TrEMBL record:
This is Probable membrane transporter protein. Belongs to the 4-toluene sulfonate uptake permease (TSUP) (TC 2.A.102) family. GO terms for cellular component: plasma membrane. Keywords: Cell membrane, Membrane, Transmembrane, Transmembrane helix, Transport.
Length: 242
């Protein structure tokens, strides 16, 4: 990669880390489309590894606000969803997976903006966890289903619970990608260089979180979901036209 590529990656990971640490998810949605333009081989493993680092930190920082029971039920769905996602990576074209993710997320966000709030039950969390597993393993964009299902939570609880869920889910996804041989060698070099950037993103987020109440967090979470979809669509169009 060129020096310009490295600089772009640093900016991308800083912004994505700040977003994820601020609302509990968003790293994959913001970073993945840009990384795909720089080096598609870095996806989804690079984002998943950096997510493991960041969600570990946020989970510890927000440990007093965790909903462990809710995260646990979501993980029941995440495991089979991650296995299905790892299999899809090996058999389905990335473009097809991307469009499926976009359609799923946009549908959920539109319904949410129109006042629909899914009832948080054991089964709804399991289903959302499964969707997160498929999407997170195939495209590294796995936070949106959980943000939609937990949109009524206060900001600290959303950050903490999402981070705990995504931490375990990301570890599962990464292990499966390793098992299926879907981690490119250059991934490790990028990870080593981007660790300080991600840590700076977390520090920057601490100046933002005090200003996020429940309403602002919900709007930011849904907005981040739509932004991630828009960037994913733009990436696919650029690759199609190029």
């Amino acid at each position: 990669m060129t020096p310009a590529d490295w600089a772009a990656l640093a900016v991308i990971f800083f912004a994505a880390s700040c977003l994820q640490a601020g609302i509990g998810f968003g790293m994959g949605m913001l970073a993945a489309p840009f990384i795909a333009l720089i080096d598609p081989a870095l996806l989804p493993a690079t984002v998943i590894i950096m997510s493991i680092l960041l969600t570990s930190i946020v989970t510890v920082a927000e440990k007093d606000s965790l909903d462990l029971r809710g995260a646990g039920w979501a993980l029941v769905g995440r495991v089979p969803g991650s296995v299905a996602g790892a299999l899809l990576v090996t058999v389905m074209a990335p473009a097809v997976l991307s469009w499926v993710v976009v359609a799923t997320v946009v549908t959920g966000v539109v319904f949410s903006l129109r006042g629909w709030a899914p009832k948080v039950t054991r089964w709804s969390q399991i289903v959302a966890g499964a969707a997160s597993g498929v999407m997170g393993t195939t495209t590294s964009i796995g936070g949106a289903p959980m943000a939609i299902i937990w949109q009524g939570s206060d900001s600290a609880r959303l950050r903490g619970t999402l981070s705990a869920f995504l931490l375990v889910g990301s570890i599962i996804s990464f292990g499966l990608l390793l098992a299926f041989g879907a981690v490119a060698p250059q991934t490790w070099t990028v990870v080593l260089w981007m660790v300080p950037v991600v840590l700076l993103g977390f520090v920057a987020s601490r100046f933002i979180t005090p200003h996020l109440d429940k309403t602002r967090t919900k709007r930011l979470a849904l907005g981040a979901s739509l932004l991630g979809c828009a960037l994913l669509v733009a990436t696919q169009l650029v690759q199609l036209l190029g």
